[in-house]
Amino acid sequence: MTGIADAAPGDARDVIRARVQAAGTSFYWAMRILPAARREAMFAIYAFCREVDDVADNDAPAPDKRRDLAWWREEVDAIYAGAPRHLIGRALVAPVAAYRLRREDFLAVIDGMEMDAVADIRAPSLAELDLYCARVASAVGHLSVRAFGDDSPAADRVAAALGRALQLTNILRDIAEDAARGRLYLPRELLAANGIVESDPAAVLRHPALRQVCRDLARIAEGHYEVADAALAECSRRAMRPAAIMKAIYRATFDRLVAADWQTLDVPVRTPTPIKLWLALRHGIF
């Protein structure tokens, strides 16, 4: 493992913070409202997720990807033993102890990335898709709510539901981009229910029933947003402000997708930055 791992230990926070900023995501704005120590913990969690995601998405052969993900599983063990080798691992030692971050959540993220790494996902079952969302998104949520300062059962329900809602929003937003990479996350049951028997991404994108499949998946995502809303009402309002911001920003994108009705897949649907900033202010200040 090279690159970011080779930075001097004293540079860890600066390197990780720069990576988060460079990503230009909504995540950065949502996390800025946190106290410094919790914000640095979230940046380290994000950097960990980006590292393993990069393994899954690079062009290396599948055996090499599995090897690198196995390395990260060993690194998770090293973090909990207090002897990590990687810069990001070192940055996670203190947050793991301070906020009781769970080993199984880090490992679940890696397991989710391995689902992408072993072979391109194409028309998974609803159960497989839910497992994928639980691993790559909800597990991150379980880590995050602890770093935010709420480890209640309600906060875990937010993590489970909101993680799924956000990941399904990404899937519904990135259908064409994923298809160009040979991936199709739309579940086979919804495809079959609408008369689509193909699993080839390009063929599915050309099918006239695609819009109805997207509407059906959007209803599932809507259900997860509703569960997250109800669970958020039971949480520490102050601690869960970053979750409220992320939900608001993604919900704005989701609503734009539903309004556009997947009529034109080659025009990306995005929430403009000024609106994201306004949502961050609206939900970050009480």
> What's the mean pLDDT score?
89
Strand portion: under 5%
Structural class: mainly alpha
What is the global morphology?
Answer: globular
User: Terminal Cα separation, in Å?
Assistant: 43 Å
Biggest β-sheet, characterized?
none
CATH level 1 name of the largest domain: Mainly Alpha
CATH topology of the largest domain: Farnesyl Diphosphate Synthase
Total domain modules: 2
CATH superfamily of the largest domain: Farnesyl Diphosphate Synthase
Helix content: over 70%
Q: Radius of gyration, Cα only, in angstroms?
A: 19 Å
Verbal overview:
By secondary structure, the chain is mainly alpha-helical. The chain has two domains: 1-104, Farnesyl Diphosphate Synthase (Orthogonal Bundle), CATH 1.10.600; 120-286, Orthogonal Bundle (Farnesyl Diphosphate Synthase), CATH 1.10.600.10. 72% of the residues lie in helices and 0% in strands. It starts with 11 loop residues before the first helix and ends with a helix. The model has no long low-confidence stretch (mean pLDDT 89).
Q: SSE layout and pairings?
A:
Elements: H1 12-23, H2 26-31, H3 36-57, H4 62-80, H5 87-99, H6 103-118, H7 126-148, H8 153-173, H9 175-180, H10 188-193, H11 201-206, H12 210-232, H13 241-260, H14 273-284
Helix pairs in contact: 1-3, 3-5, 3-6, 3-7, 4-5, 4-6, 6-7, 7-8, 8-12, 8-13, 12-13, 13-14
Task: Describe this structure in a few short sentences.
This protein is mainly α. The chain is built from 14 helices and no strands.
